[in-house]
Design the sequence.
């Protein structure tokens, strides 16, 4: 009996030591804190890719749409190239596709509109907490990728944008699972009209299973890469370089 | 006296025999083994995790201090609750009721003495200065600790003997018994002797509400706010009436848990804080002497 009590004491002692060590470590060591706080994103990304990897988000009816869809992030492009394109009604705007692809290319708006199109009424969730439901029309990213044929070593799709926070141009990136997801589209239309400037004209990304900041606006170039290191701050996006999760499925 | 088991008493066979002896001899002033190792480790892990979840959650709320009902909700839409500021006045608005909260909510003074126009003040949030990014890392990492801990505890309790500590028996559910327990609580008359080692009916109902409604509710409404989990579990959107409803309920459940913790702490103090805290640390509880006056 005393042996069993001792064993129980040992388990209890180990348990308390673990709890005190873990929370004490969080309180005193910023390195330990940073290490632990990476855990949530890693766990979420891996479990979300493990179970229901290709699940579709809910699509809403027209009656369920937000009467007023506010903008997120920047409300205009700001590079000279974008401004010149906007002045021409984006007639001479071209989307560059480069990087690890067999057939790099440039695609004007008409070329994108002549590809298969998809219209979906989906909910946009901002990292801040608000949601708005809108109707998006565009070309599935998978259709564009089929044109340029990514190399097998391409792991991420990087979106380079024409909007700026301060001096930094916006950019974003997603993995190939989201890139080929049927609801991931390059939207050129919103609520049955051309995509408004405030929402990212001429095209923005809709990656519906992630938060608003992943849905890059004012896209000028798409690049397929094997690693996110060396791009911007190396974390895969403007907000990611400022501490936000790269995987924003939660 | 019924022979209901003492909470958490059942570990190894050896422990069982020993605790049975104690229970049988455990009259007044005796110590009894009241909380199992698993319950105690879970309790203190949840204490630390809950504080982190609450305070990081309040920081996340600061990023958009408005709550809505329905599938969508953003600045142009009607918010049923809002913490805000106009000029230097902080306010909390719920429906049409507007309460000035300057100094605590909406407008408050930072540690450095600067006036801040954020919803919850620095002392209530993690981190203490505005960072939605950092608060999300805390919240979405410790959400795993909370959810996995809850799951293990609930499954363990449902399958193990702890179930009998928590589930009311028919006799306890009679209106007369419940009413008597309410009167006892109102008069601050707490059970003495062996009865003090068991949960009374109000305790059982409270713990069940916390374990089966508030905690599962807060975890599932958290799931409902994830766009990826919406794709995997669209039923959650129907269950809670949309993402923004889930966000509102998440907030309501959080304050339900804050209310529970407040009452829980008051009861610990009233029932004898040293004995109560020791029993949750070591497992051993000293039975209060029976009052025969």
Sequence:
């Amino acid at each position: 009996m005393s042996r069993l009590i001792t064993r129980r004491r040992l388990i209890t002692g180990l348990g308390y030591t673990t709890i005190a060590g873990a929370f004490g470590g969080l309180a005193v060591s910023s390195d330990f804190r940073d290490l632990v706080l990476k855990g949530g994103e890693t766990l979420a990304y891996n479990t979300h890719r493990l179970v229901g990897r290709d699940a579709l988000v809910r699509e809403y009816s027209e009656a369920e749409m937000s009467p007023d869809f506010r903008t997120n992030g920047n409300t205009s492009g700001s590079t000279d190239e974008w401004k010149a394109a906007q002045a021409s009604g984006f007639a001479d705007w071209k989307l560059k596709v480069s990087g690890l692809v067999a057939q790099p290319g440039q695609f004007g708006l008409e070329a994108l509109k002549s590809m298969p199109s998809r219209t979906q009424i989906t909910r946009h969730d901002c990292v801040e907490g608000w949601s708005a439901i809108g109707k998006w029309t565009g070309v599935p990213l998978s259709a564009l990728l089929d044109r340029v044929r990514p190399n097998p070593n391409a792991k991420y799709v990087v979106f380079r944008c024409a909007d700026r926070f301060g001096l930094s141009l916006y950019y974003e990136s997603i993995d190939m699972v989201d890139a080929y997801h049927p609801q991931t589209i390059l939207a050129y239309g919103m609520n049955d009209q051309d995509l408004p400037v405030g929402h990212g004209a001429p095209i923005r990304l809709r990656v519906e299973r992630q938060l608003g900041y992943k849905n890059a606006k004012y896209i000028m170039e798409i690049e397929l890469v094997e690693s996110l290191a060396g791009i911007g701050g190396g974390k895969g996006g403007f907000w990611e370089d400022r501490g936000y999760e790269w995987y924003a499925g939660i | 006296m019924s022979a209901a088991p003492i909470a958490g008493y059942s570990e190894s066979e050896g422990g069982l025999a020993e605790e049975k002896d104690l229970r049988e001899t455990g009259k007044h002033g005796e110590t009894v083994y009241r909380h199992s190792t698993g319950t105690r480790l879970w309790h203190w892990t949840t204490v630390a995790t809950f504080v982190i979840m609450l305070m990081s959650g309040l920081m996340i709320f600061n990023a958009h201090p408005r709550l809505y009902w329905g599938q969508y909700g953003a600045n142009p839409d009607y918010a049923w609750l809002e913490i805000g500021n106009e000029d230097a006045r902080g306010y909390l608005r719920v429906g049409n009721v507007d309460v000035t909260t300057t100094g605590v909510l909406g407008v408050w003074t930072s540690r450095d003495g600067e006036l801040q126009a954020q919803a919850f003040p620095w002392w209530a949030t993690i981190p203490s200065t505005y960072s939605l990014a950092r608060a999300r890392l805390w919240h979405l990492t410790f959400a795993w600790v909370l959810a996995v801990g809850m799951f293990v505890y609930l499954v363990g309790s449902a399958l193990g003997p702890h179930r009998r500590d928590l589930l009311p028996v028919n006799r306890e559910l009679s209106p007369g018994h419940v009413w008597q327990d309410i009167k006892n609580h109102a008069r601050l008359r707490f059970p003495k002797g062996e009865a003090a080692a068991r949960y009374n009916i109000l305790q059982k109902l409270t713990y069940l509400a916390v374990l089966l409604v508030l905690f599962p509710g807060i975890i599932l409404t958290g799931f409902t706010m994830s766009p990826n989990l919406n794709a995997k579990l669209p039923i959650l959107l129907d269950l809670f009436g949309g993402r923004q409803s889930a966000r509102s309920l998440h907030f309501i459940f959080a304050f339900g848990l804050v209310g529970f913790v407040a009452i829980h702490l008051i009861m610990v103090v009233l029932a004898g804080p040293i004995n109560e805290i020791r029993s949750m640390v070591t497992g051993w509880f000293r039975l209060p002497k029976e009052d025969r006056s």
Notes: The mean pLDDT of chain B is 90. The two ends of chain B are 20 Å apart (CA to CA). The first strand of chain B starts at residue 31 and ends at 33.
